[in-house]
Design goal:
Layout: H1 8-19, H2 23-28, H3 30-52, E1 54-57, E2 76-82, E3 90-96, E4 99-106, H4 111-122, H5 126-139, E5 143-145, H6 163-166, E6 171-177, H7 187-197, H8 200-209
Antiparallel strand pairs: 1-2, 2-3, 3-4, 4-6, 5-6
Length: 221
């Protein structure tokens, strides 16, 4: 299948799912999800995979085991692409009734990765490089997000010149677009590709300075 845009039926499907997040609704409208959401998203990431890495399309079902919210289905469809061998630093996209969202960076780091990240942020060469990249992305209307401590991390001075970056335990850039005509056209692929290309320097910094975790698999939380 060649990507030709996200049909409006996919957005309508998610509008309905937000109003009725039930198995009955899901089963009655499963065909719309398969043809207007999952199939075009799979086609898009398959086409971009040679440039951005191995794609993973997420399951539509929520993990409700440890959540007070027991609604069974996600109200968006997401996919992530990991560059082979990079260790950390990937790109993500999702489609929903709200439109299209793209992002890139890291969403969860293990303790050894957080330690390497903070050492690099404090470094006189690598720290300013990351700060400059974050400032560049903000100027291009990217939001900078990620899990952060409220205070300075232990062992780091609260008045460090890059304390805002040091407080991060994960770091990713985010950009969103509301529904528009282009979302239903092939040009949506170009918009995603161009956005992900803007994240190359951020992901390269993470790959070079953080890398894969060295923690044993059974200690990864």
């Amino acid at each position: 299948m060649t990507f030709q845009g996200f049909p409006d039926d996919g957005l309508v499907f998610y509008e309905g799912l937000e109003a009725d997040n039930s198995r009955t609704y899901w089963m009655q409208h499963r065909a719309a999800y398969d043809t207007a959401v999952r199939a075009p998203l799979q086609a898009l990431v398959d086409e971009l995979a040679p440039e951005f890495g191995t794609p993973k399309v997420f399951r539509p079902y929520r993990d409700v085991r440890f959540s007070n919210d027991k609604t069974p289905y996600k109200t968006h469809q997401g996919a992530v692409l990991h560059p082979d061998g990079a260790g950390v630093g990937s790109v993500y996209m999702q489609v929903s009734a709200d439109g299209l969202r793209v992002s890139g960076g890291c969403w969860r780091l293990q303790p050894d990765q957080v330690e390497r990240y903070r050492r690099a942020v404090a470094d006189d060469l690598q720290g300013p490089r990351l700060l400059a990249e974050v400032d560049r992305l903000r100027a291009l209307d990217w939001g900078i997000e990620g899990e952060r401590l409220i205070r300075a991390p232990r062992g780091w001075p609260a008045d460090h010149e890059r304390i805002e970056l040091l407080r991060h335990k994960s770091l990713h850039a985010v950009q969103s677009w509301e529904p528009a005509d282009w979302l239903h056209e092939r040009s949506a692929l170009d918009r995603v590709r161009d956005a992900w290309r803007e994240l190359r320097a951020l992901n390269a910094w993470l790959a070079d300075n953080v890398g894969a975790t060295t923690a044993p698999p059974d200690r990864r939380r």
